[in-house]
Write a structure and sequence with these properties.
The protein has three helices and twelve strands. It is an alpha+beta fold. The protein folds into two domains: about 1-80; about 110-270, Thrombin, subunit H. α1 (about 1-30) runs antiparallel to α2 (about 35-105). It is elongated. The protein starts with a helix and ends in a 5-residue tail after the last strand.
Length: about 280
């Protein structure tokens, strides 16, 4: 940019000299102008205008480096402010997460946790599982259940290495959770289904009283069998239908855990099983 203005100033100067030469030539050969003042009068205005423009160009050139330095400083400050905003958002999210975990801990005083991060999902259309960044060296064992910070049930550990573990979600077709309808106490099994896995839904089967479950009912873990603690939120009933055989009913459940956006989770490494 600075080089451009330098070249521009030289060009303007040359043009002015050429115009002046042309006027002098016209005066000399035309014979209509009788004094130098007459010759230079029209050129004088043009030259003065050109000089004013040159002054502007060179004034800008003189301040160009200072302007560039100021712009660089402004860009650096903007970058700092953006980083401060990101850190503030991250801190607020961390505080919210810890508050939710504190509420979960108050509700389940017997729970012991290991905080983990989701590393990657298993690349398979036949299973719903993912890997987390902690394993037996951090107290994570096969069979431990996994929840979100809100206490929403995610799944359980099916394989634990020293520094990582594989978690099978409740959406997996091999998964089954003893469940209960909070409103009525009707027991059931919330199980994964290959047909529903890609839709992010569970099938609610073995209803102890099909008439006692309706759309909108909250489903939690019953704790029966000792695999999962009781009281973990599984999801909400979307619908209840009669099976094709006409002898039983089943429900469709939308899990409360948002699997697509999970990043930070908690492994329940210890709890008191139901009697």
């Amino acid at each position: 940019m600075k080089e451009f203005f330098k070249k521009t100033g030289i060009t303007v100067g040359i043009v002015l000299l050429l115009i002046l030469a042309a006027l002098l030539a016209a005066s000399f050969f035309g014979g209509g102008i009788h004094s130098l003042r007459d010759v230079f009068a029209p050129a004088d205005r043009l030259v003065n205008a050109g000089l004013r423009e040159l002054e502007k160009v060179y004034a800008y050139m003189a301040h160009y480096d200072a302007i560039e330095a100021e712009n660089a400083a402004l860009r650096a400050r903007i970058a700092e402010m953006e980083e401060e905003v990101r850190e503030s958002v991250s801190t607020n999210e961390e505080n919210a997460r810890l508050r939710e975990l504190l509420e979960l801990t108050k509700e389940h005083t017997d729970f012991r946790y290991a905080e983990v991060s989701l590393i990657s999902w298993t690349s398979s259309s036949w299973a719903s599982s993912f890997t987390v960044n902690k394993g037996t060296d951090h107290g994570v064992e096969k069979g431990d259940c996994v929840v979100t910070q809100e206490g929403f049930l995610v799944g359980r550990v099916i394989k634990a290495g020293k520094t990582s573990a594989l978690v099978q979600t409740i959406l997996d077709s091999a998964s089954g959770v003893g469940a209960v309808a909070e409103r009525t106490g009707v027991t059931a099994v919330a199980e994964g289904s290959y047909e529903l896995m890609n839709e992010g839904r569970l099938r609610l089967t073995y209803l102890s009283d099909p008439a006692g479950v309706v759309g909108g009912d909250l489903i939690t873990s019953s704790g029966k069998g000792g695999v999962y603690p009781s009281g973990l939120i599984v999801g909400t009933v979307e619908s209840v239908s009669i099976a094709p055989d006409g002898l039983s009913a089943y429900g469709i459940v939308l899990p409360s855990a948002e699997f697509a956006s999970m990043t930070e989770l908690f492994v329940i490494t210890d709890f008191t099983p139901e009697d």
